[in-house]
Amino acid sequence: MTPPLPARTRVAPSPTGDPHVGTAYQAIFDLACARQTGGQFVLRIEDTDQARQVEGSEQQIYDTLAWLGLSPDESPEVGGPAGPYRQSERLPEYAAVAQQLLDAGHAYHCWCTPERLADLRKQQEASKQADTGYDRRCYGLTRDERAKLPGFSEKPVVRMLVPDDPPLTFTDLIRGEVACPRPDDQVILKADGFPTYHLAVVVDDHLMGITHTVRGEEWISSTPKHLLIYRWLGWDLPFFVHMPLLRNADKSKIAKRKNPAARLMWFRENGYLPEALVNFLSLLAYPPVHEGSDIQSFDELVASFDWGKFSTTGPVVDLGKLDWLNGAYIRALTDDELGARIVAYWDEVGQPVDAVEARRVVTQAAPIIKERLTTLRDAYPMVDFLLVDDDLLVIEDDAREALPEQTPQILAAAIKALGALPGDGFTAETAEAALRASLVDGLGLKPRVAFNPVRTAISGRKVSPPLFESMAILGQARTLARLQSLK
RNA sequence: GUCCCCAUCGUCCAGUGGCCUAGGACCCAGCCCUUUCAAGGCUGUAACGGCGGUUCGAAUCCGCUUGGGGAUACCA
Predict the structure, then answer these.
(1) CA A222 centroid distance within chain
(2) Please, which residues have CB within 8 angstroms of residue A314's CB and are 6 or more apart in sequence?
(3) Distance in angstroms, CA of A410 to C1' of B13?
(4) What is this structure's pTM?
(5) What is the distance between the alpha carbons of residues A44 and A47, in angstroms, rounded to a whole number?
(6) How far: A312 CA to B29 C1' (Å)?
(7) Which terminus of chain A has a smaller tally of CB atoms within 10 A, N or C?
(8) Of residues 199 to 218 in chain A, which lie within 7 A of strand B by their beta carbon?
(9) Through-space separation of residue A384 CA and nucleotide B31 C1' in angstroms
(10) Catalytic residue status for A251
(11) Which among A155, A225, A253, A256 is annotated as catalytic?
(12) Which SS3 state, helix, strand or coil, does residue A219 take?
């Protein structure tokens, strides 16, 4: 089913902590839908729960979406014709609609205290009653009538009056016909004057001209509440899309407590490339654009995007494929770009290096580390030996222990062979040729044995990027100094 | 408890009644390449939860069952 053009989609996170990976997951497809149809992608901030607001998290939402290249066309940050885009700034709109529903008899005031509601709930659960829910104690009563009864609160909320025939099915773009439970007399306007999600989402999606109400699967069961409000207000329904829920390895809904990768920032902190992450997320519950390959750009996704291709099963977020994708994206970078990204990453995570020198060395080393990197985070331990002063190079214990017994002779021969090279002719090729002639042919050693001490002298480690290229980056003098030092 | 959603290799997807002795990607294993580690190439292991239907024929349709998930808030 292809919806009409152009689409206006929206992502609506709550600023209640570090941005959630689910926000990016939804944003990818929202944006794809909007771009494909020439529409707009809107960011709305759902800050209706005053108690849960976290300072700075709204800014983090902007930052992470920008980092991913998923910046909205309209948002509190950049503005737009349908603002304000922050729900806390739209209170009059919600109050007006609530009053309208009150006047029409579709909603009523409720003065019950939270304590009474909690008791009621406890009783219902204990009695094994099939349906739990509000008992309509306040329905039909005036304030003064209700005040005489126990469990009275001075500040009322507004509840919706669910009729006997509420809509219990709707059409979902990726699921088709969906059935859902009969709603309770849900609170739509809280005692503090803020709306609940149910009122706010309907009012905002309508007023902002949103064509696709995209959200997580957990909202299916409350959709009848929204359908009811649309009906009462006589507003046209948007397309509903309930995306499958991202899962932990144990299949539960992905959460920050269980899974560090539930935090969007985690990927950035750990050296993942945003384009790789977008690629990875676009593969969850959604088939790859190209047969036989999982590598695809966002533009390719846009070109072939279709809500109907979604799978309805909640995918486990398994980082194995992301690691591979990230490596593939790193390998595709130019040396210069990789150097720039690595140094920028070090700057972000506070790795203390001289930026200019580091950029020069890392760009030089790019060809030899590129195919060894999974994330940008892997770069530092791979090239730190190229950045450290010769006399500060640490020889790791396991490398020292693995040194063959002929080490002194090998190092002596290596120093002699490399020292004999002309200063302007010291390259990876000449160094390799000289060492092979001297150590492998001359001393009759296996390459594996012959180059072991040399590698340790140069890098301080048993495992390092390619040896001869590393020596070329260090240069003849520093190479000789390190060989001498270990000897 | 009640309601809703979901069900193919370890993971992510393909498969919409015959092209399926179920295909791809990642992971894993083996081999090749090789100065270490990678990358790359080749090969391989591995799944339709179960039971009943419908049909000439079912991974695909239906029912039941089992399993997982979600919702049942003045949180979203």
Answers:
(1) 26
(2) A217, A244, A245, A246, A247, A251, A253, A285
(3) 53
(4) 0.95
(5) 9
(6) 33
(7) N
(8) 217-218
(9) 34
(10) no
(11) A256
(12) helix
| Residue with tokens 């935090």, as numbered in its chain | A263
Which DSSP string corresponds to A255-266?
Answer: -TTT-GGGBHHH
A33 touches strand B (CB under 7 A): no
Question: Which residues, 6 or more positions from A239, have their beta carbon under 8 angstroms from its beta carbon?
Answer: A3, A173, A211, A212, A213
ipTM score: 0.96
Residue in this structure with the two tokens 């480690």, named with its chain if needed: A461
A149-158: pLDDT as tens digits: 999 999 999 9
Is the distance between the Cβ of A253 and the closest atom of strand B smaller than 7 Å? yes
| pLDDT interval class at A1 (50, 70, 90) | very low
- Say if strands A8-11 and A169-172 run parallel, antiparallel, or are unpaired: unpaired
Q: How far is the CA of A466 from the C1' of B39 (A)?
A: 12
Q: What is the pLDDT of residues A247-287, one digit of tens each?
A: 999 999 998 888 999 999 999 999 999 999 999 999 999 99
Q: Which of residues 441-480 of A touch strand B (CB under 7 A)?
A: 447-448, 451-452, 455, 462-469
What one-letter code names the amino acid at A273? L
Give the whole-angstrom CA distance, residue A218 versus residue A220: 6
| Euclidean distance between CA atoms A114 and A98, whole angstroms | 21
**Is strand B within 7 Å of residue A313 (CB)?**
yes
Nucleotides of B under 7 A from a protein CB: 1-8, 10-15, 24-27, 34-40, 68-76
Residues in chain A: 487
CB-based contacts of A194: which residues, under 8 Å, 6+ apart? A48, A49, A50, A87, A88, A91, A94
With bands split at pLDDT 50, 70 and 90, how would you rate the model's confidence at A126? Answer: confident
Query: How many Å apart are A311 CA and B71 C1'?
Result: 20
**Spatial distance between the Cα atoms of A188 and A160, rounded to a whole number of angstroms:** 7
- A176-215 pLDDT tens trace: 999 998 899 999 999 999 999 999 999 999 999 999 999 9
